Amino acid sequence: MSTSVKVTDRTKSRLEELQAEIRLETGKKVTQEALLERLVTEPYESKADVIDSFRDDFEPLSDDEIEQWLSGSSDWGVETNEDEIDAVLYGE
């Protein structure tokens, strides 16, 4: 259910600023309704915490997972420079 809420011009402006900052920082377009919902229902200690709450959840790999991933690589004993890599990737 959606209900209209009247806010002052100053509050509207600050909401728009925060909305724009969230988009710049996270790349996500957030509606003012979603922003207000989050501000009212969740406790935040700072503006940065609010912005971070709109980021995708990312859980970094553990040290064991990193080690397992790296164990699949091997040294072929061939020196490669940037130009050779670019030629293979982008053509000559």
Structure overview:
This protein is mainly alpha-helical. It has one domain (9-90). It is built from 5 helices and no strands. The protein starts with 8 loop residues before the first helix and ends with a helix.
Sequence-ordered SSE layout with sheet pairings:
Layout (H helix, E strand, L loop, with lengths): L8 H18 L5 H10 L5 H6 L10 H8 L11 H9 L2
Concise overview:
The protein has 92 residues and is mostly helical.
Keywords:
92 residues; mainly alpha; 5 helices
User: So what's the overall shape?
Assistant: elongated
The overall pLDDT, averaged over residues, is 88
Gyration radius, to the nearest Å? 23 Å
Discrete helix count: 5
Largest sheet: none
N/C terminus separation: 59 Å
Model regions low in confidence, pLDDT < 50 over at least 5 residues: none
User: Considering DSSP H and I runs of 4 or more, what fraction of the residues is helical?
Assistant: 55-70%
List the domain count as a whole number.
1
The secondary-structure class comes to mainly alpha
Element order: H for helix, E for strand: HHHHH
Number of strands: 0
- The fraction of residues assigned to DSSP E strands is under 5%
